[in-house]
Protein 1
Amino acid sequence: MLVLGPGNTMANIMVSVVKGLPAGKTYPAPKEPVVMDQNGCHYEPHVFGLMVGQPLKVLNSDGILHNVHALPKVNKQFNMAMPPTVKESTQSFGQAEGMFMIKCDVHPWMSAYAGVFTHPFYSVSKKDGKFTIGGLDPGTYEIEAWHEKLGVQKATVTVAANESKTVAIKFSAPGAAH
C-alpha cells in the first residue's frame, strides 16, 4: 500500500536501527501490548513493530468474520479465525524477525506488516513522512528503512548527546532510474 502525503512524503515505512547499538545490552519488552485492529475491513495500523515477548493484541471492531494469518519465517505462524463473537485475541513472538505479512484469508485485500525487534529503536513513518527514534546513546548508527513495495534503503547517522538529527531517505518508484 503506497500512502503519499504532501510533496510525495510516504507513510508506512518501518525505520529501525540495524547497527551501532552496544553489544550485549538488553532491552526489556514493554508489558503494554501493540494493538492491531480489524476495522472497516482493514488492519490498523498497516505497518508496526513490537519487541520480542511484547504482546500483540488483535481486535475485531468490525463485528464480522475475519481471519488473522501471520506469516513469519523465524517465529511460529498463527492462523486464527475471529468470528463476530471474538472481539480480541493476544499473541506474542519469541524471536527477533524482519518484516513479515499478516493477512486475512476471508478478505484478501486485508494485509499488515510487522517486525519483531530486540530493542526499542524503531518507528513507522506517518503520512508526512516523519518518524522519530528516540533514546539513542551518542554514537554512529546504521538505520534501515523498509517499504512493502519499494524495498529497503539504508542510511548512517551520528548523534551526539542531547542532539536531534534529520535523516532524509529517498525511495524510487519501481522501475524508475536511480
Note: The chain is about 0% helix and 40% strand.
Protein 2
Amino acid sequence: MLGFQLAFAQPQSSKDDLQKQKQQIQKEIDDLHQSLNSIHGDKTKVMAAYRLAMRKINARERMISNINRDIRRLDENIFQNEREIYRLKKELDTLKIQYAQSLVFAYKNRSNYGYLNFLFSSTSFDDAMKRMAYLKSYRQFRETQAQTIVKTQNLLLHRSEDLSLNRKDMSVALQTQNNQMKSLEEDKKDKDQAVQHLKEQEKEVSAQLKKREKQRQDLNKAIDLAIKKEIQEAEKREKLARQKAAEEKKRLDAAAKAQAAADNKKTGLNGANAVTKPATAVPEPSSKGMATASNANRSYSSLESTPEGLTESIEIEKKKGHLPWPVSSGDIIHRYGREVISSSMIFNNDGIVISTPVGTSVKSVADGEVISVNDLDEYKYVLIRHGRYFTTYNRLSSTDVVKGQKVNAGTIVGKAASDFDGSGAVEFRIMDSHGNYFNPEHWLKPR
C-alpha cells in the first residue's frame, strides 16, 4: 500500500509544476495583450503589432499545450483511482466473506464445553499448549480481519473522494481548454489584422524587408569568408605540423644511424654484423587519428586537428537540444527558414530572431573562440568558432569581446540593439564548416 501512496505523490509535483508554468504563461499573455493595446492604431508600429500578435499566439499555444498535459495527468489519475477502487472493492468483498465465515465458525463453537473439550482432547501437555496458542491466534486473526476491513473501507472512501476531485478538475481543465481555444482564434484575428495593416503599408514594409534581405546576404558573405579563412589557416597549421613531424622524424633517423655507426665502430662490427638502432617514432598529427580514438563513425574537418578544436566540436554536439539561450528572456518572432506574410512580404531566415528588451546582454551558448567582430550597417555582429561549428550573434548595439578571445558558455558578447520598428531583437545562427545552416531551435534547450 505504501508503494501505491508514493506512486500518487509524483503527479502532485507535476501538478504544481504545470500550475506554475500556467501562471507564468498567463502573465506573459497579459503583458503582450497590454503591449498590443498600447500601440493599437499606431501606423508606425505595424511590424511591432505583427510581432506581438505572433508572440501572443505562440504563448497561447504553449498555454494550451500546458492544459493538455494537465488533462493527460488528470486522465491518468482518474484511471489509476478507478483501477484502485475496483481492486479495493474486490479485496473488501473477499475480506467480508472470510470474516463472515470466521464468525459462523466461532458461533458454532461458542460454548465453553466445546472449548474445554478441544483442550482436554490433547494427547500431551505440548499438544494442549499448541491448541491454546491456535485458539488465541484465531481470535487475533478475526480481530485483524475486522481492522483490515475498516482500513480498506477508509482507503476506498479516500480513493472515491480523490476520483471525485479528479473529475471536477478534469471538467474545469476541459472548460479552460475550450476558453483558450476561443482566445487563440481571437489572437489569430489580431494577427490577421496586423498583416492587413502591413499590406496597407506594403511599400514601406517592402523597403524595410529589402534592406533586411541585403543585410542577410552581406552577413552570409562575411561569415563565409571568415569560415574559409579559418579553414585555410587550420589546413596551413596542419600542413606545417606534418612537415615539422616529417623533419623531426628525418632528423631522428639520421641521428639514430649516426649513433649506430659510432657504436659499430667502437665495437669493431661492420657490414652484415653492424647493428642499426631504430629511430624513435614521431606521431604524425592527424584528425583521422583522433577520430579513431574518439568515435570511428564520425567525420572530422581540419578545424578539429587540435585536441582543443575536437573537444569543442564534440561538446557542442553532446549538448544539442540542451544549449543555453543567448538571451535570458525573449520569444522567437522569426523562425528558421522561409516565412511568408504575403506574396510580396517574405522573410528568409538563416537562424532565429528573438525579441528581447533593447540593451539585453547577449551570451555565447558554448565554449569557443571569437573569430570575427564586425559592423553590419547600423548593427554589429560576433562570430564564434566551436571546433567545426560556428555561432553568430547579430543585431548588436555594442560588443564586449574581441577577435581571438577565448569565451565560455555564458560569456557576454554584446548588447541587443533596437530593430527598425523600435523594439529589441537579436538574430542567432548555428552553422558548420561546410556552410550548412541549422535550425537553432533544435540545438537550444526547451523553455
Note: The first helix runs from residue 2 to 7.
Protein 3
Amino acid sequence: MPLFYGWVIVAVGIVITCVGFGAMLTLSIFLQPIVEAMGWSRTGVAGAALLNFLCMGVGAFMWGSLSDRYGTRAVVLSGGALLGVGMVLASQATTLLQFQLLYGVIVGVAAGSFYAPLISTTTRWFTENRSLAVSLVAAGLSVGSTVMAPLSRWLITSYDWRTAMWVIGDLVWLVVIPAALFVRNPPGSTATAAARAAAAPGLTIGQVVRTPQFAAVALTHFACCAAHSGPIFHMVTHAIDRGVPAMAAATVLSAAGLASLTGKIGCGIFADRIGAKRTLVAGLALQAVAISLYLFTGGLASFYALAAVFGFAYGGVMPLYAIVVREYFGERIMGSAFGAVSLAATLGMALGPWLGGWAYDAVGSYAWMFIGSSAIGLGAVAIALTFQPPQLVGAALPSPSAAH
C-alpha cells in the first residue's frame, strides 16, 4: 500500500516549523547574554521580539495570500532563505537599533512564511484526521523550543552569542531550504487561483474579515497569544533570577516545549472527537490558571512542574484556530483567512515580551506580567465561549453575489 503523501507533508511541516520557528524563538535564550555583553536593557532587546512578532504577523498575511496564488513551496523556500540572512546579519549588529531592525524585521517577516502556509496546505491534504495532522505540523514549534533552546545555550557557553546566532542562521539554510522542496499541493489543486475560484466560487477574504465570527476568532487568538507570550519569552530569565543555573533554566524552556508537543497531539485527538471549540475553551482556561501559578514558583522542581502544565496548555490550543477557521470559512481562501487570524495573534505575541521587559525594568519583578497575562488569558476564554456553530455562521454570511 503506497504511503499517503499527506503524511510526508506533515513530516516536512514538522521539520520546517521546528527549525524555522525554533531559530526565531531562541531570542529568549540570547536575552541575558546579549544584555550582559552589549549593555543593552532587557526592554531594548525585548523590543526586537516586539518587532519580530509584528512583522511576522504582517508576513503571515502576505505569505498566506502568496501561497494561495503561487503555492506553498515557493513561499517556504523564500522565507527560509530570508530567515537565514536575518539571523546571520543580526549576529553582527553593533547597536541596539541595528539588532532590532535585523532580528526584529527581517527574521520576523521571514518566520511568517512557515506556519500559515504549511497549515493551510496540510488542511487541503486531509479529510480524515485533519485536526491530528494540523496538530502534528504545529508540534514542530514545540520540538523547535525543545531542541533549539539547549543548542543555543551550548553554543553561547562554548563560544559567544554572535557565533551562536551565526551558526543558527546557517542551520536554517541547511535544513529549511532542502525540506521545502518536498512541499507540494494535493492532487487536483494545481489549477490557477482564477480557475479554482471559477470552479468553486465562495467568500472573498474581504467578506470573511468583516464577519463577527472572524472578529471573535481573531480576538481570541490575540488574547491567547498576548497571555502566554510574555511568560514564555521571560521564562528562562525569570528562572535565572530565582537562582536556577543558566543551563538548567534553558532546559525549563525545553521542558515547556516538550509539554506543548504532547498538548498539540493530545488536543488534536480530542478536537477530532469532541470538537475544536470545547477543546479550545478547556485549553485556554488551563493556560490562564497555569500563568497565575508562576507567582509562586521557587526552585527548579517547581519550574519543571509548571512548565509541564503551562506547555501542555499553550501548545494544545494553538493548532485549534486553524481548524476553526477551516470549519467556518472553507478551504478556498484558507491561506488568506488563517493568515489574517495569525496577524491578530502575532500582535498579541509582540506585546507580551516587550511589556514583560518593561514591567521588570520598572519594578524589578515579573509579578505584574504574570498577573496581567493571567487576566488576559481569562478574557480569551470569555471570547471563545461566544463562538457560534459553523453552520449558523455560514448561514449568516453574505453570499458572493450579494456583495456585488
Note: Confidence is low (pLDDT under 50) at residues 190-201, 399-404.
Protein 4
Amino acid sequence: MIAFDDNEDPADDPETELDEEFPLGDGDAETVVTVYCPYCGEPNDVTLDPGSGEQQEYVEDCQVCCRPWWVEVSYDRAGNAHVDVRAEDA
C-alpha cells in the first residue's frame, strides 16, 4: 500500500496512471508466444512486454528468414495475449 501526504493527490501517482491505462488482473500476463512467419511459415517465439499497454503495434523480423512482419498485440483483462502477425508489405 502506498501512503500519501495530505497535500498529495493520489491521482498524480504514476502507478495510478499505469493501473488506469493497463488494469491489473491477477498479476500474470503472457510474456512469450509462438507465432508463425507469414512469409516462410516457420514458428518464432516472440517476447511480449505487457507493461507497454494493452494494445500494441510494432514491426519485428522473422528469426528464420529475417523478413519484417507487422505485430499487433492486445491483452484481455485476464492477462491473456492475443497476437496477430502479418506481412509488413501486405
Note: The mean pLDDT is 81.
